[in-house]
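agent: user wants the full assembly modeled, not chains individually. Plan: 1) parse entity lines 2) check alphabet per entity 3) run joint structure prediction 4) return tokens. Steps 1-2 passed, four entities, 506 residues total. Proceeding.
--- entities ---
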Amino acid sequence: MGRTVTSASKTPASRTASDAMMVLPITRQTVTHQATEALRERILRGMYPDDTPLRQDALAAELGVSRIPIREALRQLEAEGLVVFNPHRGAVVSSLSLDEIDELFELRSQIESDLVRRAVSRTTAEDVSRAKEILKAYEAAFRAAEVAEWGKLNWEFHSTLYAPADRPFTMAIIQRLHQQSDRYLRMQLVLTHGQSRAIDEHRGILAAVAAHDTKLAAALMRQHIVGAGRQLVRFVSTERQAAKNGSLKSRRT
Amino acid sequence: MGRTVTSASKTPASRTASDAMMVLPITRQTVTHQATEALRERILRGMYPDDTPLRQDALAAELGVSRIPIREALRQLEAEGLVVFNPHRGAVVSSLSLDEIDELFELRSQIESDLVRRAVSRTTAEDVSRAKEILKAYEAAFRAAEVAEWGKLNWEFHSTLYAPADRPFTMAIIQRLHQQSDRYLRMQLVLTHGQSRAIDEHRGILAAVAAHDTKLAAALMRQHIVGAGRQLVRFVSTERQAAKNGSLKSRRT
DNA sequence: AAATGGGATATTGTATCCAATCTACTCGAG
DNA sequence: CTCGAGTAGATTGGATACAATATCCCATTT
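--- prediction returned ---
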């Protein structure tokens, strides 16, 4: 019974090394696919902040392709919830309200704590050591505030813990929710320079999983996500308040 | 605080009446949008069964448009999980394995029972009477095996119960999961001519909601979904076994 | 001075056309 | 007779070109 790791199937440790060897044999990537990945990456990295209008011509020129693959990519990202289309007016990067961010994290905590619960009993020593490896890289990226790496590694850590549950369908959904939350978490990470309880919490969760303490692992995971959500809502709240005041001030000049 | 009903915002009772008046003023629908809806509808109705290859030329001719809007529609449906793309080989209607169907319903039961739990205390008498109206139409469609109506009404009933929870984000996700499950439930509905406990179960759930019995409502909802999932897995299992035997026999000739 | 209307401009939406790739079939060699 | 190479047809992927729509500015009017 093979476990599905939902597109995060690259082994995390040897990723940089294997990429060149894995990808070269299959240069069979369609331009639309590449455009989708490029745009998703840029949105997630915060290169295009919330509510940025996404001009098809500009994106096409930037990526060196025509508008057709851009449009198809935007459609896909729309369905992923990263952009919003307005007929004849173009697409903009989607923006979550505070309520939606709150809801997002509550939903995540519910689903992901359940995933851990299902996974723990099936988790092998190998799984744990893999998670440990990822966690090491994660902490480095976290401290260095390397937002690009951080997001990937955060997902890899979580998904490694969930993988033994063997729930590909649920994983795909959770991965999208992670995408959405990471957009804002990264922002917070950059501006707070890594002030967070995330590292300790991750270690605690991993320890509980390694000890096969199902209840504890699930509870810690829930707390971890709920806590991160609360913290993030506060952060975004003050950020937006500041931005609003700033725009008011500048409008007044 | 307005409740979001996630695109099912048409009031169900006056739908047929209001459609003509509501839609005519804004004929501003893009062809891509119409194509997306048309194709989604057809897949959900079972007009294109699982694994049907979706030829862009054929679809374009059928809808009387060029291939561009078709391709964009297919991209969107891909992100919704209804079709799968193979580079340079075209799109096919996606197919769920038995394990995935099982997982789908377990996930639904988890999320939806939680939604009911949150909703009950805020449910008004008006909400209940609306649900009652929908249920009436639902039962009629169910008995008549009008698959097209049935699916919509089933979702409307469920979403009406969940709406007071005020969880737009979760609702959007659940709506997609409903889409996936309905594809198979409809098949079952047609072939079993409405043999199901669904009607009684819906009434029971609504009664519990009306009585503001949170625990009972949530428990019944969970049972309803889990039960439907189990029944469906059995049904699809035998269906596929039969299909396989049939194809074996025909291959032997 | 404010509001309204018209037109220029920018941007998106769709169709047509060409290139790249896959599939299936034929033909020939072993 | 089987297997493989090669070629023809079909189909998708992508670019260019054109049409439809929205936005913005400015003139004109009240």
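agent: reporting back. The domain at 10-93 of chain A is CATH 1.10.10.10 (Arc Repressor Mutant, subunit A). Strands of chain A lie at 53-54, 83-86, 90-93.
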